[in-house]
Amino acid sequence: MEAAGLSCLVNLPGEVLEYILCSGALTAADIGRVSSTCRRLRELCQSSGKVWKEQFRVRWPSLMKHYSPTDYVNWLEEYKVRQKAGLEARKIVASFSKRFFSEHVPCNGFSDIENLEGPEIFFEDELVCILNMEGRKALTWKYYAKKILYYLRQQKILNNLKAFLQQPDDYESYLEGAIYIDQYCNPLSDISLKDIQAQIDSIVELVCKTLRGINSRHPSLAFKAGESSMIMEIELQSQVLDAMNYVLYDQLKFKGNRMDYYNALNLYMHQVLIRRTGIPISMSLLYLTIARQLGVPLEPVNFPSHFLLRWCQGTEGATLDIFDYIYIDAFGKGKQLTVKECEYLIGQHVTAALYGVVNVKKVLQRMVGNLLSLGKREGIDQSYQLLRDSLDLYLAMYPDQVQLLLLQARLYFHLGIWPEKVLDILQHIQTLDPGQHGAVGYLVQHTLEHIERKKEEVGVEVKLRSHEKHRDVCYSIGLIMKHKRYGYNCVIYGWDPTCMMGHEWIRNMNVHSLPHGHHQPFYNVLVEDGSCRYAAQENLEYNVEPQEISHPDVGRYFSEFTGTHYIPNAELEIRYPEDLESVYETVQNIYSAKKEDVE
């Protein structure tokens, strides 16, 4: 019967057979078995053919953009390599919780991934697959996959930025440089120069449509994509700017973000296009890119407090001064300003040098400087990610900036991460500026002490709820709680039978004013606003309407959210082995009581 069925199958036309094999009903293993049955099916399932290409596409669709339709590809071999890379990536992700639960992933912690054989895009794709797993499970896997992917992409972007900065000074791709900054600060987002350029091209098309109504013979209308032609007549340039202002500010409603000026999103070009708002430098880069594509040679001006563009009104080849330019405020709806009006804009007189044009590196320096200032203002983000990212970017451009190197060393020291890297930075500072020996010596001493303390740490501390000294602990890890006084929602990830903080913290937090003072259980909690806090038992209560806690470190401690509570991962359960049973009992009691109230 099977032989007869196979005979019928192989007698079908080749197109029909190929359609069946590519229908998606067969797995890779099925295709392997089918191809071994007879010569005709083996030929249809050849390694570079359509059948294996479809198997690869269905399994990993996001990877297809990396292949050219004209390239010869051994799809069977690609399938095997991608599958092997996925297994290796998962193996490493699974090991991270055990290796790095008690500390920040060290600088060399990613070496396993970096040393893997095979295309990096395959490893990245597997990490993305883990992040995209459905439901509220595999939280710990997602937590470490995110960290690894963040690191890998940032390293690649930083290398691209450094190569970009080696371009000659007359290389004026301001947009490309701004995209590298955007990508580095948002490595998990799908941001590419190609996609950003496509969005800008669509705006250029709208401007051309408006321009056609102003002057149907305008030379900009004949420009092809990618051309770098410039229009020399001022009147024709003015027509382009009028059309741009109409499209950007009247039709598309772009505007300067005066209401939320100090928001990092205002500096990311992909967000400027999505939200249609930004600050002077990001709005200027968008305006400049569109104008240059349409033949208007605007130039960036690093004006204090308010980035501007300048538009030359003088004769080509003549000696020009600052009064031969009109200055454009892209933040202010493309308003055209004189020198005197520029000074009114910022409320002070400035020297002629500050009206000069700046190169790409100086523009990027200002963008990163703005991010650096915002990073220093961060309050609730206790990881200081924006400050860390902006320091990396600034030091990639200016690696010998002593004060920023010192800030980076202090930041890592404050966060208690990467002590070996702190020592390397301090050694570099000492070489650059021996006069910093006081600050350097202090940090070196305390960093070495930190390293010694880590070496002296004993094994894992296990806390048993059944122990006599823990009899007053009422709540368990994984429970969703509410703070009685401040109203925030949180999840418990650790507890102490009494307050374990120092006298200064107890005094500053006014713990003695609590009815039970510091002689009561205190809980480590992850708060919905992204912070980590240490709360007294008397200030917490069960949240009878539990919800997921949106905190970046949830996956570090928990593997799953059940809808009522979090389940600790293996590493946290080792430290609190009796809490999981207690959580189940507590949740059942809460909902039994709630059900009785309803009845």
From TrEMBL:
InterPro entries assigned to the protein according to its UniProt record, in alphabetical order: F-box-like_dom_sf, F-box_dom, Hemimethylated_DNA-bd_dom, Hemimethylated_DNA-bd_sf, SirB1_N
Record domain Hemimethylated DNA-binding: where: 472-569
Gene3D superfamilies on file: 1.20.1280.50, Hemimethylated DNA-binding domain
Family matches, as SUPFAM superfamilies: F-box domain (SSF81383), YccV-like (SSF141255)
Protein name (record): F-box protein 21
Annotated signal sequence range: none
GO molecular function, one term: DNA binding
Lineage top rank: taxon: Eukaryota
